[in-house]
Structure formats: structure tokens, C-alpha cells
Design goal:
There is one protein chain. This protein has helices at about 20-30, 40-75. It is mainly α. The chain has a domain at about 35-75. Keywords: Cell membrane, Membrane, Protein transport, Translocation, Transmembrane, Transmembrane helix, Transport. It is a single-pass membrane protein. Its main location: membrane. One of its GO terms (biological process) is protein secretion.
Length: about 80
């Protein structure tokens, strides 16, 4: 039975890139991004705000209901 090591050896380890190369690659990738328009951002904001308000109302209602239930059970 032969044991194989899963640790990378010196010959299989990829070379490190320089910070300048890394920065150039980041800028190149960011140029590929499709940025949303102002109206899309406004629309997303309204949708997220509505969702958060609905979730807050649900959690507040459950908190109020369970609080009243606990006071009724243990009072």
C-alpha cells in the first residue's frame, strides 16, 4: 500500500502574480460587469425596502403575539 500526499509540491504550485498584474486583472474583470441603470437601482431599492418592511411587520406581529401569550400563560 503506497501513501500519497495531498499537499502540493514545489513543481505543482502555481506562481504568484505581482500586485500590478492583479490590479490589471481586477480592472479588466470590472469592465466586463454590466452595471444597472439609475432606474433599475431605484426599482431594486423600492422592492428591497418593501420586503424589509413586510418582514419587520411579520416579526413584530409574532413578537407581540408571543409576548401576549406568555403573559397570559404565566400571569
Amino acid at each position: 500500500m503506497s501513501e500519497t500526499s495531498s499537499a502540493p509540491t514545489e513543481s505543482t504550485r502555481p506562481e504568484r502574480t505581482s500586485p500590478v498584474t492583479f490590479y490589471r486583472q481586477v480592472v479588466a474583470e470590472l469592465r466586463k460587469v454590466v452595471w444597472p441603470t439609475r432606474s433599475q437601482v431605484a426599482n431594486y431599492f423600492v422592492v428591497v425596502l418593501f420586503f424589509v418592511l413586510v418582514m419587520m411587520a411579520i416579526v413584530a406581529g409574532l413578537d407581540y403575539g408571543f409576548g401576549k401569550l406568555m403573559f397570559w400563560v404565566f400571569a
